[in-house]
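Hello Y.,

Per our agreement to keep a running log of every chain we model this quarter, I'm adding this entry. I've kept the format consistent with earlier entries: sequence first, then predicted structure.
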Amino acid sequence: MKDAPLLTALAPWFGSARMNALLIGREIGKQALVGIPFCGGCSEIVHIDARQILLADKHRHVITLAKTVACREGYAQLERMVDKILVHPDSLDEARRTLARIEANGDESRVDPEWAAAYFANVWLSRSNAGTDSECRQPLAARWTSSGGSSVKRWRSAISGLGYWHRVLRENVECRCLDWREWTGKWKDASSNALYIDPPWQDAGCEYVHKFTKEDHGELADWLRSLRHTRVVIRHSDHPLYRELYPEWNWVVIGGRNQGNKKISECLIIKGESYIDKEKAPYGWCPECGESLSASKEYVRCVNGCIKLQPRVWHEPSQWPRRVAECEEQQV
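Predicted structure for the entry above:
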């Protein structure tokens, strides 16, 4: 795993896997090539151990941002441009006018500091809904109370984190603006390769710019099942459609959070053996830090102390208290 990033995702993607990126990297394992057809905010690549990573997405803005951050000259210009942007509604409006002009021109994804700066400002100055129909309609992430984080600090932290992503994306990552169907005739089905698949979820993914229908999920499953040697790791909710599409694959239930920051269960669906299965972590994995949970007669707890759970609660992630203090309050 690479050094811990200051910025855990290149873009604050709707429904991203930032919380479980470490577990996803462990489940993919060490590979020669890892393909990610639905890269979104790119949070998982930090934890992937591969000689080469191929990122792709249909979303032109995020691929332009990734390409520009990876380019030495493009990154230098981008950093200078975003450093001049203030947290203000006018800054957000200007960024969106730039994106609207690009959309109207139908420009192809490329290294473009102006375009990348506009998209970076759009998603990090506003509320986190990148990748959705409303990503260019979200209001400025302004704070009117002392609770919660600082909008200015969030923006400056995002800018500070760009240097880390520049190093990561230059190291071994190739970025392309592709539909997943363009992979089917090009992907080399080899035991040294792996695919990480995180498409828009059935039902929950209806808000994305690029929709994914039930038929799309079925077509994707047909291709993935046809691969004989490639390791495949899919992230999805425990949805009946996916139980029907992948009935014989290994299912690992992990903790997660929805957009309202409420704990939920999500699944990693694996073609091949699970590297983080229950035999190696009988009580599951901590959704906060990714380490295994251990048990005593009274509690199930994380080795790092993130959570401390009563036995009747640990198996249901949606009921997990976020911190030890919450659990202790429940017992009073």
